[in-house]
Prior knowledge:
Helix content is 49%, strand content 14%. The protein is built from 19 helices and 15 strands. The longest helix is centred in the C-terminal third of the chain and has 23 residues, at 332-354.
Amino acid sequence: MFLKEKNGFNQKSKIKNQKLQRRGSKIYFYNYLTRKIERFKPIRKNWVFMYCCGPTVYDFVHLGNLRTYLFEDFLRRTLEYNGYKIKHIVNITDIDDKIIKKSKKQKIDFKKLTKKYSQYFFEDLKELNIEKATKYPRATQEIPSMIKLIQILLKKGYAYKTSDGIYFEISKFKDYGKLSQIKKANLISGKRISTDQYDKKTIFDFALWKFKKAGEPFFKAPFGDGRPGWHIECSAMSTKYLGIPFDIHCGGIDLLFPHHENEIAQSEAAFGKKFVNFFIEGEHLLVEGQKMAKSLGNIYTLKDLKEKNFLPLSFRYLCLQTHWQTKLDFSFKKLEESQKSLFNLWQKLLDLLLEKPQKKSSKFENQKFIKYQKKFLEIINFNLNTKKAIELLYQILEDKNLSSKTKLKLSIDFDKVFGLSFGKILKEGKKNFPSKKILSLVKKRENLRKKGNFKEADKIREKIQKNGYQIEDTKKGTKIKIDLKKILKI
Ligand code: AMP
Ligand code: ZN
């Protein structure tokens, strides 16, 4: 309310019109299918259909996983900013070897285990302001569509049965390797693999279905009871909910091969159509030069950050500041710097709330608003350059020829992509707006200082600080600041 009243902040109807205008702005992404930055055009007019590989829920997700989910959120929000509606599917892998192993070790039902960790996953997303997907299908609930897909592959001769499961034969799929640019001939060594573990034709043939083993969960299937392989899960769910082809498939770069390559093979072999137009894969989060991974034992979770008094959004800010195609070597020092920058940014916004309204020509302000918004769109629409977009925001906040009202309007607008809770901070700031009494104390102190009565002035300063405000004496006079720490309750 405060923003509306004091700064004439009423952008709802304007934004609606701008959204309509925005549709059709050119968007470019690096596409791993072509290894080029390409113009992105969705298949449907106003919709983007997007699939992102989700977590295997047997443990907490780590910061590496979260970096990927954050990058996908930046991508989604950018498309929304452009005026598109998004159908966004994220799968939950709730049956696999690691889940079975852990549930056996802990002697608990695997469903209980996966329920617990999927709840933690959703909590992490919420704390990082990651928008909810349209649907989070769970593998165990989607078995019929996987069975159907395997039946098609068997019928078309792309799959074969062994003693332990059903496998996809990569030599049968002509385009195998097109995403990873791995030569199929190098993968098919011609050797027949026959070990205790498997009986497949070549080592890179992969399991579509694993036959049941004693003491392990299984699902009924016409070709033999068992459970699905990991890759088939994503082909079945993505095509079930998004059709084929769809617009964008995301994941971390490690999924490029074999996971996404195998998804392409299964889906294109079964449906005889192109699977996905854009594969957009985020770079890794590292620790001391190595990929953050459970298997390497170098992981940190969001819980670890909170225990060290970091706000989850500091991690979001760190990821925004690193281009999605650049490796991010994580350290607590970097996170500390990010938190500091984020706090500075929030403080700057709070300071704007308290700036005296400037009389500026509304035509000039409007022109600048549109100019900056256009620039922002250009930056994020060119391969999702969130780092540069943050720099633009700083530039705007430093622009001496722009009113605080327009600066706030632009910040709130850009935050639709950043997701850094600017709205919440400003709402709290508005609640903590200094009363007339406090403002008159500031005036009184200023007069006392002018008269050289610093002793009395200091007493008043203390009083103001006790009420949760900071005082800054500048060349232009005394400024009162809403204390961010009070807003954040830290
Ligand atoms: P997983 O649970 O290992 O299947 O991973 C879930 C998602 O996190 C996938 O998109 C992975 O590519 C991604 N991921 C895993 N480790 C990292 C990492 N160190 N940095 C960035 N993304 C990662
Ligand atoms: Zn997947």
